[in-house]
Every structure is written in structure tokens, then in C-alpha cells.
């Protein structure tokens, strides 16, 4: 079974600063994908970044980067130069890469960016 | 990019009535769609996997007779909450992945806008 753990219910960050949102995972499958989604108050799920278990390099997408440490089973999201619009819920998720499988989500972290 | 559309966005109904939520993949075919439920301040919990042309697969604890799923075509899945009660009030969100055979099933999972159900 897959499990995602996000231990930070809430985080605060000063505008323009960087912030790291923690995510650890557990799976017995050697082939998997890790995802981060942003959910603003409107409820929509916004895809941020993806990391495959066999990817050699950490994924980056603009101000988002994923600090993938496979041995530690962690996939932390780093947001650089935080903006007020980054305030939202952030969910870490994973899925098997064999077959069309659903995502399993962590409990989420609420990020608040302070001016 | 691929888009998944969900309708309605908001629905308020009386206790005992049934509500249908539609999930459409707009520019790709989805043989499989996933339905999630999210209670306030909680995470997304998988309810069921909707399979085109066959029965849905429900997660443990989800009543299949209460949450009817129909996946009649490659672009449409519907979730019907039958005899809704106040405890069914929640945010329901569907998702689908555009499977690219050259890449496998590692593609991004696209989500609908979600449907907020309030049962009075």
C-alpha cells in the first residue's frame, strides 16, 4: 500500500523568501511517481511538479523544485521567491506508474505568505 | 493541455433527493476516471475508479448503491448521489489521466473544477 505523510499542517513564509514543504512517502513498488498540487480556496487542483522514481535529477518548474531523496523516501517541495498568490493548500501525492492508477494524497499543508 | 470539465460547480438539494455530477474530458479520451471526495479542511479521498464500459471499482467503505457511477463513453463519467443526506455534503472532484502509450501512465492527472454539494 502507498502512503503519503505531510507533517506540517500549516506554514508561514515572508514574501520573497523561500519555503520548503515536507513530504515523505512509503511504497513497496519500485516504479512510482510523485506529484505536488496546489489547491486555492476555490477548490481547483493545480498541478505543480512531477518526479518519477527513476529520474536522476530533481524536477524543477519555474519557482518550484522538488528535493527528491529516494533513500529517505522524501519529496519536499521548495518554493522560491514566495508571492502572496502562493497562499493555498499544498498536497503531495503519489501513484504507481504501471497502469492507469489513481493518486494517493497526503493531508496537505496550508501555506500562508505574509507581506 | 488536457482539460477535464465538471458540472455543476455548486449544487444545493433537499435531503432525500438525488444529484448527478458530470465529468468530461474535453480534448482526450479517458478509459478511466477517478472520483474523489474532500470534506472541509481534509485531504482528497478516493471514492471509486470509473471504467468505461464496465462497472466502477469502489474503495472500501464507499457505498456503491449510494454513489452510482456510470462511464458511458470515453469522455464522460457521471456520479449520482442517491437519496442524499446532510452528511453527504462535500466537495466532489473527478480526475483523468491522458495516457500516452509512449510514456506510459506517468502523465499528469488532470482534475475537474470540483462540485460542491450541500444537502439541506
Report on the architecture of this protein.
The complex is a heterodimer of chains A (115) and B (120). Chain A is an all-beta fold and 115 residues long. Helix content of chain A is 0%, strand content 52%. Chain A has no helices and twelve strands. In chain A, strand 8 and strand 9 (74-79) form a beta hairpin. Chain A is globular and about 45 Å long. The N and C termini of chain A lie far apart (41 Å). The mean pLDDT of chain A is 95. In chain B, strands 2, 4, 5, 6, 9, 10 and 11 form a seven-stranded mixed beta sheet that branches. Chain B has a four-stranded antiparallel beta sheet with strand order 1-3-8-7, with no helix packed on it. Mean pLDDT of chain B is 90; it is low at 101-106. With 120 residues, chain B is mainly β. Chain B has strands at 4-7, 10-13, 19-25, 32-38, 45-51, 57-58, 67-73, 76-81, 90-97, 109-111, 115-119.
| Biggest sheet layout of chain A | 6 strands, mixed
What would you report as the Rg of chain B, rounded to the nearest angstrom?
A: 14 Å
Q: Could you list the spans of chain B in which at least 5 consecutive residues all have pLDDT below 50?
A: 101-106
User: Strand pairing plus helix content of chain A: what structural class?
Assistant: mainly beta
Largest interface: A-B, 24 and 25 residues
List SSEs of chain B in N-to-C order. Answer: EEEEEEEEEEE
Write the layout of secondary structure elements.
The complex is a heterodimer of chains A (115) and B (120).
Chain A: E1 3-5, E2 10-14, E3 19-21, E4 24-26, E5 32-39, E6 46-52, E7 60-61, E8 64-69, E9 74-79, E10 88-96, E11 104-105, E12 109-114
Parallel strand pairs in A: 2-12
Antiparallel strand pairs in A: 1-4, 3-9, 5-6, 5-10, 7-8, 8-9, 10-11, 10-12
Chain B: E1 4-7, E2 10-13, E3 19-25, E4 32-38, E5 45-51, E6 57-58, E7 67-73, E8 76-81, E9 90-97, E10 109-111, E11 115-119
Parallel strand pairs in B: 2-11
Antiparallel strand pairs in B: 1-3, 3-8, 4-5, 4-9, 5-6, 7-8, 9-10, 9-11
Amino acid at each position: 500500500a502507498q502512503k503519503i505523510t505531510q507533517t506540517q499542517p500549516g506554514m508561514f513564509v515572508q514574501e520573497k523568501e523561500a519555503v520548503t514543504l515536507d513530504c515523505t512517502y512509503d511504497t513497496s513498488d519500485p516504479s512510482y511517481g510523485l506529484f505536488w498540487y496546489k489547491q486555492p480556496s476555490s477548490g481547483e487542483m493545480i498541478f505543480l511538479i512531477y518526479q518519477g522514481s527513476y529520474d536522476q535529477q530533481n524536477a524543477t518548474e519555474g519557482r518550484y523544485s522538488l528535493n527528491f531523496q529516494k533513500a529517505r523516501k522524501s519529496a519536499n517541495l521548495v518554493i522560491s521567491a514566495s508571492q502572496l498568490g502562493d497562499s493555498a493548500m499544498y498536497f503531495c501525492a503519489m501513484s504507481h506508474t504501471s497502469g492507469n492508477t489513481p493518486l494517493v494524497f497526503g493531508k496537505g499543508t496550508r501555506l500562508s505568505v505574509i507581506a | 493541455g488536457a482539460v477535464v470539465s465538471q458540472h455543476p460547480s455548486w449544487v444545493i438539494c433537499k435531503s432525500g433527493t438525488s444529484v448527478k455530477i458530470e465529468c468530461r474530458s474535453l480534448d482526450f479520451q479517458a478509459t478511466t476516471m477517478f472520483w474523489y471526495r474532500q470534506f472541509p479542511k481534509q485531504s482528497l479521498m478516493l471514492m471509486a475508479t470509473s471504467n468505461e464500459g464496465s462497472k466502477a471499482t469502489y474503495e472500501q467503505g464507499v457505498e456503491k448503491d449510494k454513489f452510482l457511477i456510470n462511464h458511458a463513453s470515453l469522455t464522460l463519467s457521471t456520479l449520482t448521489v442517491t437519496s442524499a443526506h446532510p452528511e453527504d455534503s462535500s466537495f466532489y472532484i473527478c480526475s483523468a489521466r491522458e495516457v500516452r502509450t509512449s510514456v506510459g501512465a506517468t502523465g499528469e492527472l488532470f482534475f475537474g473544477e470540483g462540485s460542491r454539494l450541500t444537502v439541506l
